[in-house]
Design brief:
Layout (H helix, E strand, L loop, with lengths): L3 E4 L3 E7 L24 E7 L1 H11 L5 E3 L1 E2 L4 H9 L8 E2 L6 E7 L5 E6 L11 H4 L5 E5 L3 H14 L3 E4 L9 H8 L4 E5 H11 L3 H5 L4 E5 L5 E4 L4 E4 L13 H14 L4 H16 L11
Parallel strand pairs: 1-4, 1-9, 2-7, 5-6, 9-10, 10-11, 11-12
Antiparallel strand pairs: 2-3, 7-8, 12-13, 13-14
Helix pairs in contact: 1-8, 4-5, 5-6, 8-9
The protein binds adenosine-5'-triphosphate and magnesium ion (MG).
Adenosine-5'-triphosphate (ATP) binds next to α8 and α9.
């Protein structure tokens, strides 16, 4: 069986809704002593983190992905959920002192948000090395994580000769041009959305052609316009899949990655894999949360 490791963030999102307006509670002349607590109507806890989201989708598609990342002692229920859906969590690092990463966000009735992201055990995600696992991987996907872990993981893949995919997403904001070049060099796949692709070119000062010389396959998702795939030999766009209804786009990019790499690892062409990616992404949009969809 083909083996894929997915490395990156593992987190939960705690989402609350405040029926009033934040703005009405803020006194401009007293902000130096601001102290507020909002009585909220609703709390929704969603499983997330890019690596967990991608691994969930790969598990649904019949692979048994190895999840790599850092979590806290509170990971028990989340671990059980992922294991039930085919994800191998045996190499996840459990921190002794930190909680699993958590995004806590309150949204008011005007869609204004006040949020905090606690990275917690994500800071220790580098504790488990690929070489500790003693298992050959056909592909390692390196997603947004503690930035130092992302760079170290890519280095490990180059040293061990394991094909790898780089998916910097949110962490592009933390990388300068030199970091980005060090991260992506020699990757088999580079994945971004359209904006991140442009940001990556601006930060590195590289043209699309220069970047293409560093990676084999460049995948750029284009939201409702689908996805663009480019190699040194071909380039094409696959349209987005139809959605029955748009419920919640959270995790759509991760759903695409699950479908795309399930296709690739099952030996499908890049075009077929991109279509499968779009199909899974559409299922993510149709459900609330990133890991609430099912596939038949
Ligand atoms: N409105 C939509 N209808 C159908 N498919 C969509 C829609 N939006 C996105 N997709 C699918 O999801 C894929 C990824 O979308 P997008 O480029 O928005 O990713 P992203 O910006 O990384 O998203 P994320 O918010 O998860 O980080 C697209 O390639 C497409 O297949
Ligand atoms: Mg994204």
């Amino acid at each position: 069986m083909v083996r894929i490791a997915v490395s990156g963030s593992i987190a939960t999102d705690h989402l609350m809704t405040f029926p009033g307006e934040f703005a009405g509670q803020l006194l401009a002349e007293r902000l130096d002593v601001v102290s507020l607590s909002f009585l909220v109507d609703e709390l929704v806890v969603r499983r997330g983190g890019v690596a967990a989201n991608i691994a969930y989708g790969l598990g649904l598609l019949g692979l048994r992905p190895v999840l790599l990342g850092g979590v806290g002692a509170d990971f028990g229920d989340y671990r059980a959920w992922l294991e039930r859906h085919g994800v191998d969590c045996s190499h996840v690092h459990v921190s002794r002192s930190r909680h699993t990463a958590r995004f806590v966000c309150t949204t008011d009735r005007n869609q204004c948000q006040i949020a905090s992201f606690y990275p917690g055990a994500m800071a220790e995600s580098g504790a488990v090395r690929l070489s500790d696992i003693g298992e050959p991987f056909d592909l390692v996907l390196i997603g947004a994580d503690e930035p130092a872990t992302m760079l170290a993981r890519a280095d490990e893949c180059r040293k061990l000769g394991i094909p790898f995919a780089v998916d910097p997403s949110q962490q592009l904001a933390r990388f300068d041009g030199a970091d980005i070049m060090a991260f992506i060099d020699g990757a088999r796949y580079l994945l971004t959305n359209e904006y991140e692709g442009a940001l990556l070119e601006a930060k590195t000062g590289c043209t699309a052609a220069q970047l293409q010389a560093r990676v084999e396959v460049r995948v750029t998702t284009l939201a409702d316009r689908g996805v663009h795939v480019a190699t040194r030999h071909e380039r094409f766009t696959v349209p987005a899949a139809a959605t029955a209804r748009v419920v919640d786009p959270t995790g759509v990019g991760d759903g695409f990655r699950a479908g795309f790499f399930a296709g690739v690892l099952h030996g499908r062409s890049l075009r077929e894999s991109a279509r499968l990616g779009c199909l899974v992404a559409a299922r993510v949009i149709e459900s609330a949360g990133s890991q609430e969809y099912t596939l038949d």
